[in-house]
Amino acid sequence: MKKSTRYLSYRLMWMLAITFALMLVFLITLTVIAIQDRKYLFLVSVGYLLLGIVVYAYYKWIYRPFKESSKVLQLFATGYTINGLFGQNVFLSPEIEEVTKKVQEIMNTDELISATKKQAQYLALQNQINPHFLYNTLEGIRGETLNAGLENVAKMTEALATFFRYTISNVENLVALEDELTNVNNYYIIQRYRFGERLNLSVEYDTEDEIDIMSYKLPKLTLQPIVENAIYHGIERKIGNGKLRIKIETTATRLIITISDDGVGMTEERLSEINDKLNRTTLDYIKPDSEAHSGIAAVNVNNRIKLLFGEEYGICMYSTLNVGTDVEITLPLIKKDMKERNEN
């Protein structure tokens, strides 16, 4: 009882319940008296009718909207929805409506969206490594290996330097799909030196629309973390060769990228657990995840997509144990940077 009286909503519910109980007791008392005296039966009937109207109005105008608002707030608190908070038709008070609008303004600011660039910077800075010093050093090593005739080492070092340069620079901007695929290819080159012929990557799309497809925009570092997880969690644990496939499809309004591997897959329980996390939107930009190895967690990539474009977009996983995993990334079809769109 003490806990419930802390909240005004519970106090209001108790007061209404007590008021209704008193009205009902009063009407029942009048009914007994009216039956005994055989008077005022019409007034008692009107009283019951009015009580029924009040109860119906209370249910429709107060109780049901209140429960809907409570459900939305609970979903927001647990991370299942963000946009639902701003789509409410009824608010508890004008002040609550103003607070909600203020929260929406804050969440629409560039500062909130660009905060996710820390995901990429964290990778290079977690050990206090200066990223520019890192890839400049790699370029120097590449030059020395070329002079020594070690072409394979030079190629690997070049791919690594290019990968770090892409990862660190302009993280807050949308990039062309072509740039994302180039970064994935650099990462693939690095991994090929580790796995050799065991690892194979293919990219599939409609070649007739290649120019348009490659120009579509998406958040930087969307694909590589998923590819890394596919290698680390799927193919590395598999005996024999492994295949990675990136399939790119478009609809009238969406860009759909599916990253598939024929690795070890996962159990239904584990898949359900991951998809449950992907269905939630949280504001934890840098989220330690031991299962994400050295890459950015798929959950964090998914959060950034949802924050940028809305909850209808994001990542969904499909997997069968000992068969493989498909990671489907759904994005809006964008040809211009979001800043350019806002200016227009």
Structural features, described:
The protein has 14 helices and seven strands. Helix content is 58%, strand content 13%. With 344 residues, it is an alpha+beta fold. Helix 1 packs antiparallel against helix 2 and helix 8 packs across helix 9. The chain is elongated and about 115 Å long. The protein has two domains: 105 residues; 233 residues, Histidine kinase-like ATPase, C-terminal domain (Heat Shock Protein 90, 2-Layer Sandwich). The longest helix has 38 residues. The chain has a five-stranded mixed beta sheet with strand order 2-4-5-7-6.
Overall morphology = elongated
Number of domains: 2
- The total of helices stands at 14
What's the helical proportion of residues?
55-70%
Low-confidence runs: 113-130, 284-296, 338-344
**Second rung of CATH, namely the architecture of the largest domain:** 2-Layer Sandwich
